[in-house]
C-alpha cells in the first residue's frame, strides 16, 4: 500500500508534532515545521532502518508512522545539539 502525498503530510505532521512533544520543542514549531520535521524524519528513519536490514517498503501505515517518529526524534536531537 502506497501512501499518497496527503498521506505523507498527515503522517509526517503527526509524527513531527509527537516528536516535538517528546523533545520539548513544540512551542518553537508550528504546523508547517512539524510537517517538515515528520517528512524529513521519515526519510531519515527509512534510511536508517534500511541500513540495518529492515524491510520498510511493505510496512503499512502504522510502521510508516513509527519510522517517521523515529527519524523525527533523531532529527530534532541533532538540531538541538547544533543549536547549543
TrEMBL record:
Membrane topology term: Multi-pass membrane protein
Record organism: Corynebacterium lowii
PANTHER family found in the cross-reference section: UPF0410 PROTEIN YMGE
Name of the protein in question: Transglycosylase associated protein
Membrane-traversing stretches: 6-24, 31-49, 61-79
Superkingdom as given in the UniProt entry: Bacteria
The organism's taxonomic lineage, starting at the top: Bacteria, Bacillati, Actinomycetota, Actinomycetes, Mycobacteriales
Principal location class: membrane
Localization: Cell membrane
InterPro entries per record: Transgly_assoc (IPR007341)
Amino acid at each position: 500500500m502506497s501512501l499518497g502525498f496527503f498521506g505523507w503530510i498527515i503522517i509526517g505532521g503527526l509524527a513531527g508534532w509527537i516528536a516535538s512533544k517528546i523533545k520539548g520543542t513544540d512551542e518553537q514549531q508550528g504546523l508547517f515545521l512539524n510537517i517538515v520535521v515528520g517528512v524529513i524524519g521519515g526519510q531519515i528513519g527509512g534510511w536508517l532502518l534500511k541500513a540495518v536490514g529492515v524491510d520498510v517498503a511493505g510496512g503499512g501505515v502504522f510502521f510508516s508512522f513509527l519510522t517517521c517518529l523515529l527519524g523525527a526524534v533523531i532529527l530534532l536531537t541533532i538540531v538541538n545539539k547544533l543549536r547549543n
